[in-house]
Amino acid sequence: MLQVVAESELQELPISSDDDDDADRTDEAAPSHMPVGSVIAVFEVDPYLACPINSCSNKKLVTVLQNELYVMKYSKCNGTFRASTAKTYLRVVVLLNTENGNKKCAMFLPTIKQVFESRGIDFQTDFDKTNIMEAIMKIVPFEIRYTLRGTTIVNILMKRK
Ligand SMILES: [Zn+2]
């Protein structure tokens, strides 16, 4: 069942890193201890241009005017990029039904790709917002085992169908 939740009940989720390559990954709970939840709704599909520097963990670039030219910039590393040199990344904001109620969470490219592949869908990273939304809506709701870091789903396990 899809569920409708008023936007006012939910806080805004900032763009954050997928943190997928973090060293503390090995500290994560064993699969059997990962809680089970269901992704029951999708709020937002957000393909974006990210800083291509590895240590910047796929943070979103913002457009700034610099010397009368528009460039894409990430303020932490001060890197400036053109769209062609930036990395295309993807964030999807979903409603996760957990043991403790519903939670608005973000999923990033690696976990999104994993969801599609578990359904035998070859995930084409054309980063078209509408195509990705349509594809996700066909498989919602789906059950996952997950690890959360803040409001980001950083690690999932899915049953193959
Ligand atoms: Zn950077």
Please summarize the sheet with the most strands: 5 strands, mixed, barrel
Strand content: 35-45%
From the alpha-carbon coordinates, what is the Rg to the nearest angstrom?
17 Å
The mean pLDDT is 84
Work out the helicity level. 10-25%
Could you tell me how far the N terminus lies from the C terminus, measured between alpha carbons in angstroms? 19 Å
Q: What is the count of helical runs?
A: 2
Bound compounds:
zinc ion
* Strand segment tally: 8
- The low-confidence runs, each spanning 5 or more residues with pLDDT under 50, are 1-11, 19-29
Shape: elongated
H and E string: EEEEEEHHEE
Characterise this structure:
Helix content is 13%, strand content 39%. The protein is built from two helices and eight strands. It has helices at residues 109-118, 129-139; strands at residues 36-50, 62-66, 69-74, 79-81, 87-98, 101-108, 142-149, 152-157. A hairpin with a 4-residue loop joins strand 3 and strand 4 (79-81). The longest helix is centred in the last third of the chain and has 11 residues, at 129-139. The structure holds zinc ion. Zinc ion is lined by residues 51, 53, 56, 74, 77, 79. Residues 51, 53, 56, 74, 77, 79 line the site of zinc ion.
List keywords for this structure.
161 residues, mainly beta, 5-stranded mixed beta barrel, 3-stranded antiparallel β-sheet, 2 helices, 8 strands, 13% helix, 39% strand, elongated, binds zinc ion
